[in-house]
Amino acid sequence: MHFDDRLATVLRHRAAGERAARTQFRQLIDLLGERPQAGDRSLKAAAYLRLIALGEMIPVESRAALVAESGWRFRNPDLVKWFGSAAPAVAAGALYRAHLTGTEWQDLIPKLPIRARGFLRHRRDLPDEAVQMLDRLGVQDRALPMPDILELGEDAVLDSPEAEKPAPLAEATEPEPFALSPANDADEPLAEPASENPSGIRALVERIDAFQRHRGERTPAGDAPSLPLAELHQPAERKELASFAFGTDSQGKIDWAEPEIAPMVTGLDLAAVHTAPDTAEDVAAAFLNRQPLRDLPIQLRGAARITGDWVVDAAPRFTRIEGRFQGYVGRFRRAVSGSEDTVQAAADRLRQLLHELRTPVNAMQGYAEVIQQQLFGPTPHEYRALAAAIAGDSARILAGFDELDRLARLESGDLDLDPGEADFAAIARTQVEQLQSVLSPRVARFDASFGEDRAPLALAQAEAEVLAWRLLATLAGAIGAGEAVKLAFEVENGQLALRAQLPASLKAAADIFSTETRVGGGTLSAGIFGAGFSLRLARAETRAAGGDLARVDDWLVLSLPLLTPADSLPSPMGQPDRAAG
Predict the structure, then answer these.
(1) Which of 83, 204, 435, 533 lies 20 to 30 angstroms, CA to CA, from 323?
(2) Tens-place pLDDT, residues 5-24
(3) Same domain for 428 and 555?
């Protein structure tokens, strides 16, 4: 598998000076400017926070020059939106280099500040959808539009050369009254002079006021003016806000947030609104000692989009030269049920850690295989033996990482087992026979009574084989010399029950699913994390299949729902109970 870790690699380095900051600024906008792709959202949020920090090190003129370089093509709406809230010179350069689709412009333009929309009006290569959206928002060029030409009174002659020459204001003592165009229903003049001999400027002002007043009166009822975008979705129909980034000052008050959320949360004091009284001392100590905030519960009140329970994660930031505390930067995220939130957060952290660990292990395995296979030239046998051992250890470590990732995804509900049809009884019989040949040199055995019954499950053949082997091989690895373990197989009331007597090495464990019992050697192994982890993973797989794995006294009981004849060859949509676990 290949991972695009360019963004993580850039964020791993710190810019020590302005020159390094400019280089990293270029790298980040180059990576973020690509088309939106699937990836770690927290990593992308960290990239935007790094851009903010770099912006404090680079002058506005330099940033504007960087963004205005001819090589950029920003195709990510999120980056364009972020640039739209930057300084005017930077925003103008970024919006000139933005290349989005018509649909993306339609969604983005209403979210841009009014100043940024004005920059877009000067572009002549925008899609039609973007131009239409700007028109609907009332974004026009800087010049005033030309006035409508109205028909003058009977005494005015527009075609004559004299009529085109304006009269001096001092001589305009008797202004011609306006007459409505034939399209209107009124025949009377718009206004009469306020006095018999008004001054030229006064007469001109009165004519303008009369024109504007009567133009408003003749507006048809069906064309009544409305606010821009009044026909679009109302704020109540907006997509629910799931998270947003923020920053605070040194006192803990929010002084920056994402543009669409900033007016709702600016000035909020994090130290005063957390909703867990038992954590008040911890929060106060974190603020005093400038420590990170983790899973801080917050309850917001105010606008409908932010009202509710939130969880805050934030990290302190300091000036680079003096090291002075500047405040916190972090993210608000919607709070969910306590258990679900804890499990999901732990699973996300574990999977991110595994992603970081796989890269060096893959590299070690690759170099070891190069040496062992002599791809670059002859290698002494001693070095080849060491390389083969390193490659084997790397493979076992990667297998352990895969098991950790599978457990995290199963317990957080992010992974479903592949559906299909498999005879679990036939699989168990075959695997017990294979294990008997391994146990016989130790004078150990399985006392199994399976019979000839079938036990069809709504699982793919490979998934059923992995589940059976994980359970049976873990038990076989824990069996001591000369020990016999009983296995019983029952099919009743649409349920399969496989009962296995616990070996002596597992009976003493208080929690069989967390014991660290490991086998000292041999051909069977419970994995690098021990028997407890393997059984816990087997329990997670069983629950994902709609069953359960539990300890009952000195027995381990596996129960799974059987596939009835009417449900043969099910589809994922046909097994809602099984899919829900």
Answers:
(1) 83
(2) 788 888 878 877 888 888 88
(3) yes
